[in-house]
Amino acid sequence: MKYAVLLPVAAGVTADPAWIGAYVRHAEACGFESVGAVEHAVVASGYSSVYPYDTSGKMELADDLDIPDPLDLLAFLAGQTSRIGLATGVLVLPNHHPVVLAKRLATIDALSGGRLRLVVGMGWMREEVEACGADFDSRGRRADEQLQVLRKLWADTAPEGATHDGEFFQFKGAMSYPKPVQEGGVPIHVGGHTKAAARRAGRYGDGLQPLGVAGDGLKALIALMREEAEKNDRDPDALELTLGHTFAGITPEKSERLAARGASRLVLRGNPTTDLNEAKDELSACAERLGLA
């Protein structure tokens, strides 16, 4: 099992360079596999969209909370560390033009020595997606095409370059360098709780990160991802499953049970605190309980 750390955005500390740098260096020293950075390009004050992962319909983050750009944050953390993986969790894909995004992701992967993992979602906040210039209702079709564009621009297509003629994006002879260090490009995982997310992971992704799903619902999403992979001549056994848990609640026994359900990675979240020593102690205690290096 791989153990990742969700950066404590709710504490309002992820834009503090000294705080977040020390926190992630400690996570690396504790033996955690990776850290994950969330995204909201904007949060609409008093948004009317329904947050699907809480019965209140509202997310826990305040409208005016510091939420730094995840890719810029991960690039900063790459320079602060040497081993720990760098992941989005999740990147709101409709907010980004895929040609520009392909270059940004490849650059971080190259400069970090191949440590980047991309977790994407379709976004639930209509106000945010529309503020970024995308049509909310067609974001699923757009996302499928975006993932194809990323793969094409990361592939070695020289000297002709990459060509794409789709519904939303078109280009010919596009040469995008540097390429990602990782063979096959930056791993792409799909986050979400819907059947569409599971199908997208099976068709285009390297894994699924279900959000707010458990029990029979989780089993159904996993089965759907695997079925879609087989339909598209992809190996379902090569796809990873990432689940969420808490620092306080995870134990080796719970980890084993989640592994038996197919999980290969757990993204752990802690109690929001601005006290760096308290946050580091939480990492240390969890790492010791799980037997990490």
TrEMBL record:
Would I find Oxidoreductase among this entry's keywords? yes
Question: What is this protein's name?
Answer: LLM class F420-dependent oxidoreductase
Q: Which InterPro entries does this UniProt record tie to the protein?
A: Lucif-like_OxRdtase_Rv2161c (IPR019921), Luciferase-like_dom (IPR011251), Luciferase-like_sf (IPR036661), SsuD_RutA_monooxygenase (IPR050172)
What GO molecular function annotations does the UniProt record carry, in alphabetical order? alkanesulfonate monooxygenase activity
Domain Luciferase-like, which positions?
A: 16-259
Q: What PANTHER family would the database entry show?
A: ALKANESULFONATE MONOOXYGENASE, ALKANESULFONATE MONOOXYGENASE-RELATED
Record keywords: Thylakoid included?
Answer: no
Q: Which domain of life is it from?
A: Bacteria
User: A Pfam family in this protein?
Assistant: Bac_luciferase
* Gene3D superfamilies in UniProt: Luciferase-like domain
Q: Give any single GO term for biological process.
A: alkanesulfonate catabolic process
Annotated keywords: Flavoprotein, FMN, Monooxygenase, Oxidoreductase
| Lineage of the organism | Bacteria, Bacillati, Actinomycetota, Actinomycetes, Streptosporangiales
